[in-house]
């Protein structure tokens, strides 16, 4: 049995709240509000795509942890110090992207292009939480299932 109080979920034994709520562990939480968060999310996306596409890794294979900013990576656009666009069109992507659930961590993302690939499966539900997204291109793929874009009020 778990008990949830404030920012902590308790196991059935005593835990010092000050360690969890003070900020000691808060630095481990991904907040989605910095270029470092953007970089971490893009590296997670790269890893996910490589798992799905072992033969044709495409341009995202150049994304690396040693780079100081993802704004220097191919197919990534930035506005100032935040990632605003990902363009992986015509990249021979296949597999299923519905298992990647961190797009909304890219809080300034306004453009996402995965067109002209052979991506199958459904749309990640997390995508509907990308409130700044203005351009979304998933055309010429094998995507099926429900398309829930209820939270994407800025699409044009």
UniProtKB/TrEMBL annotation:
<feature type="signal peptide">
    <location>
        <begin position="1"/>
        <end position="26"/>
    </location>
</feature>
<dbReference type="Pfam" id="PF00560">
    <property type="entry name" value="LRR_1"/>
</dbReference>
<keyword id="KW-0732">Signal</keyword>
<keyword id="KW-0433">Leucine-rich repeat</keyword>
<keyword id="KW-0677">Repeat</keyword>
<dbReference type="Pfam" id="PF08263">
    <property type="entry name" value="LRRNT_2"/>
</dbReference>
<dbReference type="InterPro" id="IPR032675">
    <property type="entry name" value="LRR_dom_sf"/>
</dbReference>
<dbReference type="InterPro" id="IPR013210">
    <property type="entry name" value="LRR_N_plant-typ"/>
</dbReference>
<dbReference type="InterPro" id="IPR001611">
    <property type="entry name" value="Leu-rich_rpt"/>
</dbReference>
<feature type="domain" description="Leucine-rich repeat-containing N-terminal plant-type">
    <location>
        <begin position="36"/>
        <end position="79"/>
    </location>
</feature>
<protein>
    <recommendedName>
        <fullName>Leucine-rich repeat-containing N-terminal plant-type domain-containing protein</fullName>
    </recommendedName>
</protein>
<dbReference type="InterPro" id="IPR046959">
    <property type="entry name" value="PRK1-6/SRF4-like"/>
</dbReference>
């Amino acid at each position: 049995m778990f008990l949830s109080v404030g920012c902590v979920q308790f196991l059935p034994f005593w835990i010092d709240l000050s360690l969890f709520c003070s900020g000691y562990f808060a630095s481990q939480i991904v907040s989605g509000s910095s270029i470092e968060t953007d970089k971490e999310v893009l590296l997670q996306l790269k890893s996910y795509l490589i798992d799905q596409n072992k033969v044709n890794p495409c341009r995202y294979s150049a994304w690396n942890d040693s780079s100081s900013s993802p704004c220097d990576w191919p197919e990534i656009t930035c506005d100032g110090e935040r990632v605003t666009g990902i363009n992986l069109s015509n990249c021979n992507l296949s597999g299923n992207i519905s298992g990647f659930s961190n797009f909304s961590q890219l809080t300034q993302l306004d453009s996402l292009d995965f067109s002209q690939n052979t991506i199958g499966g459904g749309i990640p539900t997390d995508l509907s939480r990308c409130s700044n997204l203005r351009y979304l291109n998933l055309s010429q793929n094998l995507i099926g299932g429900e398309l829930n874009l209820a939270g994407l009020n800025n699409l044009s």
